[in-house]
Amino acid sequence: xxxxxxxxxxxxxxxxxxxxxxxxxxxxxxxxxxxxxxxxxxxxxxxxxxxxxxxxxxxxxxxxxxxxxxxxxxxxxxxxxxxxxxxxxxxxxxxxxxxxxxxxxxxxxxxxxxxxxxxxxxxxxxxxxxxxxxxxxxxxxxxxxxxxxxxxxxxxxxxxxxxxxxxxxxxxxxxxxxxxxxxxxxxxxxxxxxxxxxxxxxxxxxxxxxxxxxxxxxxxxxxxxxxxxxxxxxxxxxxxxxxxxxxxxxxxxxxxxxxxxxxxxxxxxxxxxxxxxxxxxxxxxxx
Amino acid sequence: xxxxxxxxxxxxxxxxxxxxxxxxxxxxxxxxxxxxxxxxxxxxxxxxxxxxxxxxxxxxxxxxxxxxxxxxxxxxxxxxxxxxxxxxxxxxxxxxxxxxxxxxxxxxxxxxxxxxxxxxxxxxxxxxxxxxxxxxxxxxxxxxxxxxxxxxxxxxxxxxxxxxxxxxxxxxxxxxxxxxxxxxxxxxxxxxxxxxxxxxxxxxxxxxxxxxxxxxxxxxxxxxxxxxxxxxxxxxxxxxxxxxxxxxxxxxxxxxxxxxxxxxxxxxxxxxxxxxxxxxxxxxxxxxxxxxxxxxxxxxxxxxxxxxxxxxxxxxxxxxxxxxxxxxxxxxxxxxxxxxxxxxxxxxxxxxxxxxxxxxxxxxxxxxxxxxxxxxxxxxxxxxxxxxxxxxxxxxxxxxxxxxxxxxxxxxxxxxxxxxxxxxxxxxxxxxxxxxxxxxxxxxxxxxxxxxxxxxxxxxxxxxxxxxxxxxxxxxxxxxxxxxxxxxxxxxxxxxxxxxxxxxxxxxxxxxxxxxxxxxxxxxxxxxxxxxxxxxxxxxxxxxxxxxxxxxxxxxxxxxxxxxxxxxxxxxxxxxxxxxxxxxxxxxxxxx
Lengths: 287, 592
Known about the structure:
Chain A is α+β, with helices and mostly antiparallel strands. Chain A is built from 8 helices and 10 strands. Chain B folds into 3 domains: 12-137, NADH:ubiquinone oxidoreductase Nqo5 subunit (Beta Polymerase, domain 2); 209-269 and 556-587, Enolase-like, domain 1, CATH 3.30.390; 286-554, Orthogonal Bundle (Cytochrome-c3 Hydrogenase, chain B).
């Protein structure tokens, strides 16, 4: 019969209309049931996979819950435990970057000798294509993808060219955004450090044994007596500790500087936000 | 093959040509990844005709060009002619692999146009003319296609550099040498890119509006006894029906279209030139931006070509993951396309919004696994980059087993029997399937004409030979069938998904050399797969360096537009909108 196809189709639209209507009449509509309420109409919503229909999310009050792997613009990790940037200025991220939006300047010590630390690090967010290659290929877990996507500014330059200060976040921030990956990474890093420590110990033990043998030889052979005395393993370890303490002291001293203080405040703020986010996530997973 | 002898003694019989044509083959690259035959320029049409008529190679899939100036590799060191036109032929009846033909010409020389044998060479030859400056003798409409008339030079030639040229190959040296940030654009403000072709004056230039075939269209088609006049009307470039920035130049008499010519290039960014400066891996996120609805398929097509070239193994689990992602992508594309065919028919928004409900769910899954909804950048040479997060497989299985079949049934109920859709769609935009093949059209378009040609069956890639699925066909080759075939194909994708999600093993996801330092061995390769819109192919030439020497995208959206003019003639203006919608183009892929 002519028209049955039309009627069938209208039946589908009617069903959709009724479903939505019914849902809207409930005190808490379906679409808000699984969401995280931040108060003041602000919500974080994720549509469950078995929720029929399509939710309209009232951005900016309501936002989507981003999955852990969401990638936007990279961020640099400040290792809060060791009080140092993880970045060693190796430049691999800049090399693999498809649009070539990363610029790095390697720092040097007072003698002009390059050190494994960058003095400047820029990412042109207007050029970045969020491909995440820098993260994939960073050997030091120093660069990660940030979830912060609200970056609109009035001018491209200099606002969208992020410098090191704008890019750096504390480890806790990263841990809150990427909990699963962070856990895996920490486990791996610990294991690697353990191995490294063991290797170094073995090396030191061997060196000590060699030194002992040599000193024994030196006692019998006066021709090698003028060779510089080798440091024992214990001495070397003590030196390393001293240097680490020096570094920490330097980092603490830098707190007196205005810029450094600002950065510290920034880090604290980011830390606070990260903790808040972690709390939100926890609450939500509890629901 | 020894060094410096690119051309071996012609074993023409490998090509299967009869004796009278064996002298047309002047050489072959037998040691190449795929055998390729070098044909004398003046005999190419004879060879093409013979291959089409006697050997069943009815489908000219890919036609492009390579500039060998400054080529550093050893394999082709004997080349003296600079440019080389490449043809990849397939058989849609038999299936199977391709025959690659090469024609070498010096700069500024002419090649006979293949349009008389394969009308589908039309747009591809225009592209080669535009980007390489090869003249095709006998082409009916040899004009620039992606660039405008006032563009000086041919950008795909190796000696052409773009306005903000930095270096030949990435990674560039630091753009930030003394700690000073500067925009690269500022260093070169309109210095080099304002030259015009010789004898070309920008002030007196006017765009010719009456292109062939629009200018050759009959002035009075329908009412010869009336004193009426046909007029030229531009549909687009800024028009909601064109799915982007795209122009249809039409000659109409009343509402009837007498001739139609597609005009494109508004979104041209010289993707291929960028690709030749990128390292092999860097191109992966760029392929996302071609057909931006289907980044997973694009990733796979490129990975497939490079894996063929560099001989990279893909682990079992990664093969399954690729199939799962590609079939989800196909559903995304087809439901989107169905929604927008209906939009173009005037059923504004309701079918489109119902159709893309499940698309959102699928994009959420893509985001959970790859980190982005559309620019997935998920595949690597030798596998995929990330394994599934917890709970992903269950959610995907729920979609594939319950929600998607239900949603497709609902879409079917909503639209298929609809009398208005039938009245508007039946018999509109008809073109016989033989003509479509001759025009190099691929994908759902030819299956809606009754030919069961699907690369997943005809030349299986990945692990498609393990799945039980059909290639649906419909007989009528009109826009109603082009709508319905997409629904049927989405159902088949659901079937594949159910099997893949059920059978996927645990294991490695990335094998072989997936790193950023890949150096593909010397050679050329054409890799293709059945993308949702048709045959998506990547033609790559490597000279053994970290960058591809040639990186060409055979994009289905672009080549399917060959059929737009022939399909629209004789129908109304309102139908032309739907005919374009039923081809299902994405301008990111058309203009590249």
